Amino acid sequence: MDNRVYGYARVSTREQNEDRQIEALTKFGVPVQNIIIDKASGKDTEREGYQYLKRQILRKGDTLVIKELDRLSRNKADIKRELEQFKYMGIRVKILDIPTTLTDFPPEQAWVLEMINAILIEVLGAIAENERNKIRARQREGIEAAKRKNIKFGRPSKPLPDNWREVLTEVRCGNKKPVEAMRELGISKSCYYRLYNKT
Hints:
The chain has two domains: 5-135, Resolvase, N-terminal catalytic domain (Rossmann fold), CATH 3.40.50.1390; 164-198. It has helices at 19-28, 48-57, 76-89, 110-148, 164-172, 178-185, 189-198, and strands at residues 5-11, 35-39, 63-66, 92-95. With 199 residues, the protein is of the alpha/beta class. It starts with a strand and ends with a helix. Helix 3 (76-89) runs antiparallel to helix 4 (110-148) and helix 5 (164-172) runs antiparallel to helix 6 (178-185). It is built from seven helices and four strands; from the N terminus they run E-H-E-H-E-H-E-H-H-H-H.
């Protein structure tokens, strides 16, 4: 059976568009039906499409094509581990942004290619990891700045019912049961006790 060629594309969020990667992969010769796409973070390799590709589809002799190294992961240790696994599985990985991975050297010179690729992958893996760390740092700084401006995160709290104070006073005085208060206020049991515990 002929060795097969597959492509993998990843964008971090559902809002991002993978067309640029798909175009590059198909232009290189990857059949569009053989391209697996994930819309998930590159923080690790636990992504549905990627794991399915690796465990169920790829087999010895196949080629995997990706546009950029950080499509595998933005973690340098993950990148190195994944590439080593593919090598062990007998799967050729071609990275469009690393031209030396696209080159076929004579067997006696293969060690030169492997050395060059190892150096490039080490450098680009470090860049990918550094980029992720910068993104996380910017996110933390944004959250801290928002907190300093008293910007609240999560769902906004619902306002108290207009007659909440009066009804609550009657409940605390024993003149009204909680179930009667809930009915009068028109709120659920969980909402009642959440408001009760906050006031």
